[in-house]
Specification:
It is a single chain. The longest helix is centred in the first third of the chain and has 14 residues, at 23-36. This protein has helices at residues 23-36, 60-71, 82-86, 92-102, 114-118, 126-132, 167-175, 186-194, and strands at 10-16, 40-45, 77-79, 107-113, 133-138, 155-157. With 207 residues, it is α/β, with parallel strands linked by helices. It is 35% helix and 15% strand. The protein has a 6-stranded parallel beta sheet with strand order 3-2-1-4-5-6, with helices on both faces. α2 (60-71) packs antiparallel against α8 and α4 runs parallel beside α6 (126-132).
Length: 207
C-alpha cells in the first residue's frame, strides 16, 4: 500500500450478512488490517443483501449482536448497525457515501472477496463507490481471473489466507446438532445455542 495512505485516517469497510460471523471473517479482516496498515475495520451487517435473493436466517438484531461479540477484544475492529437501522435492501454505495460524509479527509477501503469483485460491475453505482473508496480484494478458493476485471485499476489485491469456512455450513451443522467449536468465536457459539438460532435445517445452501 502506498505510504501516503498512512498520513490520513483509514477506515476499512467489511460488509456482509454475518449469518453468523465466523473465524474466516475475522482472519481475513485482521490480515487485511495489518497487511494494509489500517487502523480500523468496520464490520457492517446488512439488513438485506441485494446479491442474495433470500432474507437472512437470523434476525438483524441477532446478527448485529453476534458480530459485536465476534469482534470484542480487538481494538482495530468495530461494528456499525447503520444498514440494519436503514432497513430494506442494503446498498454498499449508500454506506460508502455516508461514511465519506461523516469522515471528511479519511481514506475509505472496501474489503471484498474475489467472488464479490467479479460481480462488482453489476452493483448499484460502482463508479460512485470507487470514487470514494479503494477496493481491497482477497482471494477465494475456486475464483480465478478476477484481477482482469473492469475495476481492477481501483483495487489492491491482498494475498490473505483462503479459509474454507462458510456461514451456510455452520447453520447446517447447528441444525443437525453438530459441533461448531473452532468455526466461530466462543461468544458467538454461546449466543447461537442459547438463543436457539439455526435449529431448523435450512432448505438451501446460502452462505
Amino acid at each position: 500500500m502506498n505510504q501516503s495512505h498512512k498520513r490520513k485516517t483509514q477506515i476499512g469497510i467489511f460488509g456482509g450478512s454475518f449469518d453468523p460471523p465466523h473465524l474466516g471473517h475475522l482472519i481475513v479482516a485482521e490480515y487485511v488490517r495489518t497487511e494494509c496498515g489500517l487502523k480500523n475495520i468496520l464490520f457492517v451487517p446488512a439488513s438485506q443483501s441485494p446479491h442474495k435473493l433470500n432474507v437472512p436466517i437470523a434476525s438483524a438484531s441477532d446478527r448485529v449482536a453476534m458480530t459485536r461479540r465476534a469482534v470484542k477484544g480487538n481494538r482495530g475492529f468495530a461494528v456499525s448497525d447503520r444498514e440494519v437501522r436503514r432497513g430494506g435492501i442494503s446498498y454498499t454505495v449508500d454506506t460508502v457515501n455516508a461514511l465519506a460524509a461523516e469522515n471528511p479527509g479519511a481514506e475509505l477501503f472496501l474489503i471484498l472477496g474475489a467472488d464479490s469483485f467479479t460481480d462488482f460491475s453489476t452493483w448499484k453505482s460502482p463508479d460512485s463507490i470507487v470514487s470514494k473508496a479503494t477496493l481491497l480484494v482477497y482471494p477465494r478458493i475456486g475464483i480465478s481471473g478476477f484481477k482482469n476485471q473492469k475495476y481492477a485499476r481501483h483495487a489492491e489485491f491482498i494475498p490473505a489466507p483462503q479459509i474454507q469456512i462458510s456461514s451456510s455450513v455452520i447453520r447446517r451443522r447447528v441444525a443437525t446438532g453438530k459441533s461448531i467449536r473452532y468455526l466461530v468465536p466462543e461468544p458467538v457459539e454461546h449466543y447461537i445455542l442459547s438463543h436457539g438460532l439455526y435449529s431448523q435445517k435450512p432448505k438451501d445452501g446460502r452462505d
